[in-house]
Give the backbone structure.
Amino acid sequence: MKLEKRSPFIQVRNTTEHYRQSQHYKKGEVISAYGFLTPAVILALLFIVLPIILAFTYGFTDYYLLKPNDKHFNGLDNFKQMLSDDVLKQSFLNTIKFVVLVVPLQLSMALGLALIANKKIRGVGVFRTAYFSPAVLSLVVISILWTVMLNPTSGLINEILSNLGIGKQPFLSSASQAMYTIVFISAWSGCGYQMMIFLAGLKNIDHQMYEAAEIDGANPFQKFFYITLPSLKPITMFLVITTTIQAFKLIVQPMVMTGGGPDYSTMTILQYIYEYGFRHRNIGYACAITLMFTLFLVILSIGIKKLFREENVA
Amino acid sequence: MKMVKKCLFYIVAIAIALQFITPLVWMVLSSFKIDEVIYKDIGSIYAIFPRFSDLSLKSYTELLGFYNIFRNLLNSLLYASLTVVFGLTINSLAGYALARFKFPFKDGILIFIIALMIVPVEATILPLFSVVNEMGLINTIPGYLLPFIVNVMNIFLFRQHFLSFPGELIESGKIDGLSEIGCFLRIVIPSSLNMYITVGILTFLASWNDFLWPVMALSNADLMPIQVALNAIFSDTYNIFTSHIMAALTIVTIPIVILYIIFQKYIVEGSVQSGIK
């Protein structure tokens, strides 16, 4: 009897207390929270947000680094210049070409390697390590190593090719081959890493599905296309997104291997920004390109993520 | 039949493996040869299977005589370690605050951080250069390090990790009289060591391998990290020795190989995890 009378009272008190708690923050928690967050927020504001704001303002000026006090607002001049800039156009097309070639090549290589490395067979760990081994090389090391190996007259690759009866190739010193060479080297160096991610996905596939398919008489190709590929779809989509965004930011390989040449055939957007803004000190124009490029990448990444979500729901 | 299939599988697997390891083997072997031997061997099997009489440390001693490569190695080690220490501290504190505390503007700050994750940092590197330049910090170590200490992706990863951290542990710490920071240092960090090691190793590798930002922020040869110094050695027109270049490439790669051997589990799991989250 006593208890029954008291219980509604306690409940009411509890809810008001709960209500108060969510309204009023605990003083100690608020102070700690701001203390914990301040360094990160200050650094983010200074080095991520401020550059974006500056790109917006400088993009509309003729800011030249060596004359910092002599910058003028010049409206849309930079953007008009971009429209008639043939090298910029070519850099953009080069970047697109790289992305379109490297993403499918690298991912299918990674998937192939993962399928081999997933076989339950003796010595498979050695193969996995071998396929993964280029991951220990930095982009600069990869670029220098391959430039030496691809030397048109005395490089290792051309010696192998001529031993095989194929003529020597110019590779990086030819405008028609240089970009394809960079695509191949990027895929070669990057696919081991993605093989590991595919492997994690392959290990998660329920083995009973394959057994059931075998009972139904499915051949290896059917098993691959009807079980393996669909099961790997989320991981594949994730890798497509990250590799695509990463590929748009290509710069180190052409910077070290070709300097963007021959005839601008390997010049990428990011490298063009670097050349204009850093080497030629023309911050205004380079910031205008930065703005458009960043906008492009943000829209692209939001776009493919949306697509990814819709696909996932379906 | 099964035997034939197995053999075929091994042949294919080995042939592919050769394509991945041959460049590395050639790099390391060539660093122990002199140029004449490298180019004499290049068309034959000796390019990747050495005759031991040809191997020597000559290229290493010569390289270290020409270039002060150890200084650049130490620079890189210092930069990467500082980035790891400050990055782990600042990013994990922020992630912890966003996961644990209730405070005004919490959602706003979280949205702000998630929005920044979409902005590609490398794409805005030029305006970043002019920010650091206007602070007068170009060619200084703080100017090089500060911009890449905060990492919004890592803040987010730490937040996700701390969201599932058992609150009772922290409450019991408070009952024992620990402050918020005390709980964090004494209870949260020791029981999240795996997370710290994973993020720390990935941060270290990213910093060690970084090229574009140091090219812009550090032009002083004494401050250059190893990757930039490598490119300088490679494009040095006075240096015509392939063996020297290969020795330099090998020296730079050794620390990373050691890291991979010790922390392989963390590196692979970390990149898989950051992908799934």
